[in-house]
Description:
Elements: H1 2-5, H2 23-31, H3 50-59, H4 61-66, H5 72-100, H6 108-127, H7 133-139, E1 140-144, E2 157-160, E3 166-168, E4 176-180, E5 186-191, E6 194-199, E7 205-212
Antiparallel strand pairs: 1-7, 2-3, 2-7, 4-5, 5-6
Amino acid sequence: MLMSAFDPKRSSTRPSNSPGWGPVAQASLLAGPRFPQSRARSGDEPHSGRVWRQMYIRTNGSAIRKFAPMDRDRRRQLKALGKAEVARESATLHASLRQANPAKPGDDQWADHYRLGIKRERWLRHKLPLLRAEELNSLFVVHPWGANTWSAHLGGYVLCSGCGTASPSAIPRRLIYWTSCGCGNIRWRCFFGWQRCTVKDPSLLSPVKLIGKG
């Protein structure tokens, strides 16, 4: 059926003695369109990707060497350092929790202190006040939280080492809010939708977590 479709004798548009309908033309019609094929140079493996791999290594050689696999001693050293850091952070957090609630677990006083601490933390998340050193130390335990670098987000607090004031790192939009820390390093200015926070010396700020005292 396919041969008859290209039989020049059955075609009404081209005569059989036309030079365009010779054996070569019929064979090309039956074979369909031919696309150019890329040929590799002598000595290269065709379609193996070896040339592209060599180009990638030449371009990204420094990155490949940077992420080269570590030896066994280096992995053990880093694993030991990570475990020691986790143990240190866990011990510091347990110490802060014991300071916030010194009663023994299972005692009635421990439960009362726990509920009072949770109540203060809820008030803190709802109001997001700026706490001076006296009020801060009477209501909360200041626990270092993360590295020295911090990013502003709702619920987060930073401690100014210049005056000991704890300030929220971000606040929602307020109608009027005009306050600053004791040394003036942190200044909040909000007035009818316009809002700005100014920090004179960011190196004096460190992220903290405030744990409610019972």
